[in-house]
Fold these 4 entries.
Entry 1:
Amino acid sequence: MTTYDSVLHPPAIIAELKKNNITHVVWLPDSETNFMYQLLNDEDSLDLVPVCREGETMAIAAGLWVGGKKPVVLIQNTGIFESGDSIRGLGLDINQPLVMLIGYRGWTRRGPTPDSAARFIEPILHTWGINCYLIETDDDADRISIACEEAERTQKPVGVLVGTEFGV
Amino acid sequence: MINNTDAVKLIDSKRTDSVIVPTMNANNVGFGLPSVTSNQDLDLPLSGAMGKASNLGLGIALAQPDRKVMVLDGDGSLLMNLGTMVTSANKAPTNFYHFLFNNKVYAVTGGQPIPGSDCQDWEGMAKAAGYAAVFSYDNLEDFTTGIDEALAATGPVFIHLSVEPQVENTPVQFRQRSPRTVKMAFDEVPAALGARSG
């Protein structure tokens, strides 16, 4: 049985972002990361950049990176599907070391999922050669640090799939 | 209407230490910014990820608030990503200058008309999106006279330019390419900005 202790709480993610000196969170809200919004707004060290469509996020992040900042992208897996040309042109082709936090809509560890958003996301990331990590509980949050280190070392985007989230 | 080269030449002459993000015809190697630029180190061309030039420029503007960022966009490109106008206006960087080269066609693919080319109100859309200031020019004389006022305005500023279509019909594999690739620019511009070592 799932308990509140065994899920992911937004402060654990935000602590990881701060630990890795992230400056900007470029995002479009999704249900998996809903409870993070207020905390992000309240966090002075993180500048929130809301967008109208997910494909904008990689381009804005590219500009921030060019200008010396360290952004992450926070969108749903459905938004990754919409963002293909941005990931190609402004992620992979320019060697942007971008960590993409991706709401894993449809994810379940307990059996087949009817949601194609969940079924397609990992194969698509792998097709692009983008490695990804899954976080489901607070104990997993340090995988964000692993992703940040890997993005810098490989100079390419890395995905972090947010499998669950609970309120503050 | 304004000649494409005349427009980029005038903008370049006013750039001082601005970063310029050109795309499509404004980035044409034969008659766009690459043909007239006075400071290539601060040019960040975008030829892929169509429609995202203004997002790229917005990111730079947010990261470098003390430096002007000029985006040279195309009408077909901007139509692919209209939400960017609201995204930019919402963050409201005061150093962000969004030029729209409106030639009413997809010039790099042979000159096909863009959807709704005869009925769009770009100034109205920019105002409705929330840009702090909006300017429009349909001839070089007025643009030459007015550009200082536009660039003195507090951003985000939207500058609509009616430009002559210069249609590219050369087969893709025979087109002139810039020796400076997008990847090279992404390696060089951060160093020029002092954002990271080159």
Note: Chain A has a mean pLDDT of 93.
Entry 2:
Amino acid sequence: MMPTLLASLGYGLAITLLFASCAPLALRAHPRRMALALAAVCALLHLPILGISLLAVLRGALGDLSIVTLVFLSILFFRGPQSLLPYPRCFTLMGLAFFFLSFGVSPLHPYAWGYAPVVLTCLTGGLACLLWLRGGYAFSLALLAALLAWRLHWLDSSNLWDYLLDVPLVMTALGRDVFSGVAGRLPRAR
Amino acid sequence: MLRACFLSCHRYRRLVALPGIVCLTLWASWPAFLAPPPRFALPPLPASHPEETPRLESAVINQPDPRHVHAASIAALPDGGLFAVWFGGTDEGSTDVKIYAADYREGAWSPQRVLATPAQTIADTGRFVRKLGNPVAFVTPQGELWVVYVSVALGGWAASQLNLIVSPDLGRSWQPARRLITEPFLNLSTLVKGPPVFFENGDIGLPVYYQMAGKSGELLALSPKGEVRRVTRMDHGTRSIQPIVLVETPTRAVSLLRDTDDLPPHRVWRTETTDAGQHWSPLTQTDLPNPNSALSALRLQDGSLLAVANDVEDKRFRLSLLLSADEGRHWRVLHRFEDRESFLRNPPDIAAFRARLSEDLQHLSRMPDPEAVARNIEGNLCGTHCSWQYDYPYLIRAADGDFHLVYTWNRGLIRHLRFNETWLEKVR
């Protein structure tokens, strides 16, 4: 029940934010419209089309979103992108390295560390402390929420990594880094 | 006063939150501190009946519809019965493939029944599924019958995921399917083939394999509730899949793996663990040929290993019973269950194939509608020429001491062979 609820909320938030970015004046400036759009999207996700709901297709193809992604989406929804700053760039590189190693091309298998994760939980907690002290409250809260959700087993997975990272999050972060890198190199318009 | 306190807290809020973060971290990591290192549970000793006469019995489990069947596994039930599962459909990987099951009670196999479909798996897991694949059935130490089966949402077998269905009453009723989350990248690429091993703490060690960019065997540990507890990879690279784990002591086990290497010689791979599966030694080749096909094995009471495999480097026209007295390094053939080597140099045309197939089907065992079976097999195995194929063995030993082998017979039948210890001693 909880994994389905969280998946519905996560994909609902993502789709609503996509709509809001396409029509910022119609949605973003009106919190009530945003809330209504989110409720409508969440309901539509469960609607069976040709015998299968969009939520089942998304969960089948992409899996469940991590808790960190859910927290980020919630912050984006309620507070806007500025609340996610400062953004640690090393996060994208770590995510890419993690997924690359999981393909079985090297003896390292970091995903296995996420099952009995004394080291990983301590690292996550330590990183949350560090980020909190440096003012990165959003990231710190996201990591702590992931630890809490993992301990309470809110997703289908029992691996802490699945609460911290997911492919859409890392790909979005990569896209953002590449876009901001390219945009930074472009000559500014006068 | 209050205002001063608030401002002070606000100023130091970064520090005030730290004890909370530390407490949450310790609480999250606490169960992992308490977990003892896992040890293998030794398989129970089967009954021994040395006075029996040698016995090798044959049966066919499936019906002619669907036309293509594959990847059977069999479980010995605590009540003395047997339970077999396999997948069947128009073809391997087609969207009409379902998981079928049958029970063996009072000396005969029941009619097959559908155990899982893509639609049912979607309904149970809330996740899209396009096709189904390998199922493995086994009874847990808690007495539940489990079936773990492969499903694919998008792409080929490299995009496989695992699902678990549990029967608390040995196959009479089934709980909804659950998705096992085993990989980080979209949970892609875990498949199952071999029988499980068990741990002293009740965990179930399921030999699975990964085949995307790399290919390797893995030992997946599941809790008695079906939660994934840990995973260890046996190798990295692209040379081995489908591990069979053979426990020797609470900490030692050998694993045999199917060869997927491009380079010859094509041999079964071998690795071993001395810490109950937490680490595995580098792979070494055995002297058992392997044509990139699944094998099955078990450990006998005297410590020797008994395997059923296609002991050739190419094709799957032969299926043999083999024995190793040195932990799987060297093997000798005890018996050929199937052998069509004589056809290798002269592949049969359809007429010759039909004649031989008809003869085989008459001798195989009783089955419904042998003509339909023959048509299915011809459709599955004949192009310009025809070929024979006996593969995907799955070998277990029941509590009464009898050995049960199921395998795919020319892609059209699931054959069950039952032999006793006396027969094994005779061929040894």
Note: Residues 131 and 139 of chain A are 7 Å apart (CA to CA).
Entry 3:
Amino acid sequence: MAEAHAAPAAQLAAHRDDQASKMGMWLFLFTEILLFGGLFLLYASYRAKYPQAFHAGGQALDLVLGATNTVILITSSLTVALSITALRRGQTVRCLWLLAFTVACAATFMLNKGIEWGAKFHHGLIPGSEHMARLPQGQSIFYGLYFAMTGLHGLHVVIGASVLLWVMLLIRRSKITGDDYAVLENAGLYWHIVDMVWIYLFPLFYLIA
Amino acid sequence: MEHTAQDPHERPFFAPSGKGGLASWIFSTDHKRIGLLYLGLIMLMFSVAVVLGLLLRLKLMTPGNTLLTPQQYNAIFTLHGVIMVFMVVIPSIPASFGNIFLPLHIGANDVSFPRLNNFSWWLYVTGLVLALVSIFTGNGPPDTGWTFYVPFSEHTTTNVSIAVIAVFVLGFSSILTGLNFITTVHRLRTPGMTWRKLPLFVWSLYATGWIQVLATPILGITALLIFSERVLHLGLFDPGRGGDPLLYQHLFWIYSHPAVYIMILPAMGVISEIIPVFSRKPVFGYNMIAFSSLAIAFAGSLVWAHHMFTSGMSDNAVLLFSFLTFVVAIPSAIKVFNWLSTMYKGSISLDPPLLFSLGFILMFSIGGLTGLVLGSAGTDIHVHDTYFVVAHFHYVIFGGTGLGMFAAMHYWFPKVFGRMYDHTRAFWSFWIILLGMNVLYFPMFVMGLQGMPRRYYDYLPQYAPLQMVSTWGSWILAVGLILMFHNLYRGCRYGPVATKNPWGGATLEWTLPTPLPAEAFYGDPVAPEPYDYKGVNPDG
């Protein structure tokens, strides 16, 4: 991490240090990557152990829904980035619309996820169910990982969207402004990590079949 | 400038300003108050876990079905481990003395994120409450051992689910503390406080912070996985469904081995502060001590599977991890040699903080060297999962981190509380504690070599004499601890008022009034040479 310059005098007076906030956020993002890292490690081991089962499992997933969700999340990352630029230029209304669009993307993502999980449940693929237990060994693991990883990711989508909603409230109350937007930037960073994790989950579950 | 009693640069940080009361503590964003809050809770939990440990020793004094039922015994050694590891030793020095002195050492008036700091404490409290809930609800306290190994932890009917959530929350608290410290060290050093002028305590906390940030999330996911295995039955570690329990052990130790460096590095930082002050000599090999902290943090992340030599993993992995384990011994030894070289030809005053530090060096050396017996793949087969392991980590963690914590308490006590404890009593408590520890734990090395397995409820008659001696040791230790805490309590209530710099330290906290004021520095203090004692003398 490069040594950052001291905070400007105006920030010091207000007990503010935007560089520090961003550094703290990056450190927190490392922890998020490592949290998922444990699951990726399990994925790697089990995939090496059961290549055929993972192949079959991947083919059974809905590629269209997965791809749609990928496009949705990448678009939402773009709109978050645009919202920061908008706020810095003083276009508060535009910024709020862009954030609203991002949250709408998150909701659509979760809706699709619900449809997808619902279909799996419909086929008896419910964690802990008799049907799951009777699957060939590797496939049971594949679906176990599928639910664990997309579930944890989905939880992060919900958290990220809630944070963005809270940020929108702060912008409306002028707590976050074009001169003081570290909170928005950090929320945006968090949203990007949610997106990034999905970018790895998508090929690992849907494409490598 | 005229000072009034309400001037935050004069008023002690613990004296009420305005309203005061409980809320001014538990919602405080002042790093010093938060540090004390942590210290209080950590010591409370320490006492609880010590009592549990004494109970275990009392049961083990005699073979057979005495005092505790096997189920109670399993629950108590689990609680002893979980409380000691996650609620006492992991937060011990960083969360208490680190919180108070890291900002002061670098010339800052607080950490980078004071509100987050308060939030970490609340997470810690939440973790404690959840752990309490897991003890008193459901089907009784967890009985898995602190390692929560699968498959047993998935199937036991005791209250493991809540306990692992407690561990997750405590881990979160630890992460936020580490994150706060790293950012603080990067952002809030006073002008002129270059990286090579940082006190070594700060270096050790900085290295610790990185381990907390990078290793703890793996504990988080491991705890979540246990929880979801129990609640959702994903079967990821269930051999019957193709899962691999060994993967659980890998995940667990990927965190839990680096965690022992979270435990020991801050104590090493404390020792690096104390030794030069009481030897009146600049610390020997500053660069190497600072560097070895980072080296330990890095190398320590690559040795986790040495806990699994007998688990049936591949021989190649065993050899690799055995080799890497020996590599970690190098930076640890560098520190020990540097401390001893600092004392060489120094003008040594054998005050209580230094005594505890020397106790640290002795106990850590014994614990460290016996760690090599466990780290070499061949000998480990013989002593794996025996009392030898128990003795080893109690020497390192209690003899090391514990004495390091006590050293810190005796070193910074006058600065924090503004009063001085009784030196003679401190002297006696140290020797009794040191004696008790050795009588308690040394026989365990011998029993381990003779094959006494750890965590067993009962044992063969051949171990009876040494088990008995070990239990006597636990009583001696308890007497020493009571004497020490009593002495500190008396000191903080009735002790003579302490001077500004009773030991003659050259780091920035000793330039501040005693007890520490609510606001530490006016503007940016000048960065001192932290180990240059020319013109700095004890004033007490």
Note: Chain A touches chain B at residues 1, 3-4, 6-7, 17, 19-20, 23-24, 27-28, 30-39, 41-42, 45-46, 49-50, 53, 127-128, 132-133, 136-138, 140-141, 144-145, 147-148, 152 (CB under 8 Å).
Entry 4:
Amino acid sequence: MSNQVISLRGVSKSYVKYEDAPMLINALRLRARSRRSSLLALADIDLDIAAGESVGVLGRNGAGKSTLLQLLSGVTAPSSGVVKVRGKVAPLISVGVGFHPELTGRENVYVNGTILGMPTAEIDRRFESIVEFAEVEDFIDTPVKFYSSGMFVRLGFAVAVAAEPDVLLVDEVLAVGDFAFQLKCFARMQEIRAQGTTIVVVSHNVNVVRGFCSRSIVMSHGQKVFDGPTFDAISAFYNVVGKEVAEDVYLAGELVSHGAVVESLSLHSGADPAATLHFDSGDDVVLRMAVRATTDIDHPVMGMTITAESGTVVYSDTNLMSPFPPLAADEVGVYEMRLTLRLPSGGYFATASLHSAHGGTSVQLARAVPVTFYVSGRGLASGVADLGGSFHRAAP
Amino acid sequence: MLRELWAARGVLVILARKDFYVKYRRTALGVVWAVGVPLVQATVLAIVFTHVVGIGRGVAGSQRGYAVFLYAALVPWNYLVNAGPTASTAIVDNVALAGKIYFPRALPVLVTAMSAVYPLVIGLVLLLGMAVLVGNGVGVAFLLVFPGAALCVLLVICVGLCLSALHVYFRDIRYIVTAVLSVGFYLTPIIYPLSRPHGTLRHLLAIGPAAGPIEIFRAATVGADSSYGLAVLACAGWCLVFGGIGFWLQCRRDRVFVDLL
């Protein structure tokens, strides 16, 4: 199609890793070969992005996000395949790339602007608006080493968007600024998107992508595993995260079980039999665990915990005081916890376990691999729980 | 590649100016350091080689004349010493920027060569003053310093293009350059005239890469040497070899350097 601004066809990128440093002396020895291994960072990626689209790229560390950005910005060439990017690309990668601490804000605006492809006359013209957007009027002639990190980010962002690129690449940067500034950046990004700029947001922070991109791709181990609406992409991303976390947990050998084996743990939205990993705050959710008993269990009890990504335990409960009916050996018991997810935006882990109760105390028989999921919160609600507040103006 | 470099000329000028500012911003004496050091160096060398080693007067007739003779060589030599090592490691040293945004990888090499031109120009002015005040005065020949300076810049660019590309693969280059320059000080006709050694040795010293520009500077101030032409030709040859290999490497490897940084 002709209006594709970014088009990747069968793009792979591999890096050569030298096992030993390539020494000049080895290079001179004709037959000596340094041991090297190849690392596939991106495998056979196809991607089309149209003008004015904003696309999120989700993936864990090492999934290939940065390599993808480097290919889009033209910093590096693909090992195979074709990368086509039309127009001027401005990367907004890490805070104030090219800012020199000894130079003043003003000088850095000129240096950075020029690097981003703005002629001096254009920087002159936009200078006022850049400074105003960055809110650094009083410090513009101060060396940037005296800037707070917030001022640094603001100035870097202001210059990058002022360049009016055809493609804006946004890395984790925005996570650095405070919330008010993030909102301001999003507003500005929306403006330049309306003017036809294509925006690619790369992050492992789902909030940033959710707030801005209608379409997202999910990367895992160098492959594109999902491409579609952001809402479903978040579910796919948490699926990937969940699998990888599960691998970690298995490796850690934390899942010792005796007396029962957890066959599955899944989250469901209401009565929907299909499992999902992305919910809206306030959704009625079912946490369902299937367990196969290996011995007779007289008083089976379910325990469950929801933990925020920060590690805070959000909610934990058990039916220790009213156990389920006995479960015979080799029988499969399906147990459910029905709850309402009144949570603010963020990623969470849910885990469940089966215990055997003996008059007020219990012995853990089996524990499930945690399920990771994401909640899209109401508005700007944040904190540990969403208590469902609403704002009103009352009569004085 | 040439087209990309031409398109980036605005960036080149801004970055060169930035480099220069940054270098002297926090110093009390600023750019005085860039030209003061060679001046002191010339004076000390003049005294030592006249009174201690005792070759100064034989070379230039007087201690003062010898000082001009030395300074004429030190102006281009110090440019090479300032810009050469930085240019040779320019690609690796710019990794922070290079990993984020594309520009021709040869650009930092040119930036280094450019930013060191400012002190070179001030050095030229001081050389003129010195030649007039302490030396035998100057004539039209002094204009030769301009092609001399240009040859210096060209040499740094050509060597820089080649070595900065190799440096990505062989990090030893950084140390080799420093070593070669410190030995090169004695293998280049700086403290002695090219006419002093005889036979093969003279020819060998004349074809050293730095001999060309230095001989031009000498021709501009204290008079040309007999091996002047050979030295300039040899320098042009070095430029061609390094520049050719460098340009070829830069064209071929431009987009993959970053993978190895």
Note: Chain A touches chain B through 30 residues (CB under 8 Å).
